[in-house]
Specification:
Layout lengths: L2 E5 L5 H10 L3 E3 L13 H13 L4 E4 L6 H12 L4 E3 L5 E2 L2
Parallel strand pairs: 1-2, 1-3, 3-4
Antiparallel strand pairs: 4-5
């Protein structure tokens, strides 16, 4: 099963993970960790934790038309370690 890192704004993350599961992949998303963290920095900490799993993924899927600062960090890391970046908003084309 393909391992996919879900890169999406928090507001749409749940829907994006659901779409990923329907595509038959095993998704990982920073948003999975937020409920287990507390404090003002919980979302930032969740992103840091999830990034440790990013290098294990086969692809990064970008959802949404808004690219947040944390999403940009994920995309940059994938470019540096040659993980394919797929733009789900553009029908699965390579992310530019």
């Amino acid at each position: 099963m393909k391992r996919v890192y879900v890169c999406a704004p928090s507001e749409i993350a749940g829907t994006c993970v659901e779409q990923s599961v329907k595509c038959g992949v095993a998704p990982i998303a920073p948003h999975f960790f937020i409920p287990f963290l507390s404090g003002d920095e919980s979302e930032k900490r969740a992103n840091e934790i999830a990034r440790h799993y990013l290098w294990l993924c086969d692809e990064l899927w970008v959802f949404g038309s808004l690219c947040t600062e944390e999403m940009a960090k994920d995309i940059s890391l994938c470019r540096n370690i040659n993980i394919p970046i797929i733009d789900k908003e553009k029908g699965g084309k390579r992310y530019e």
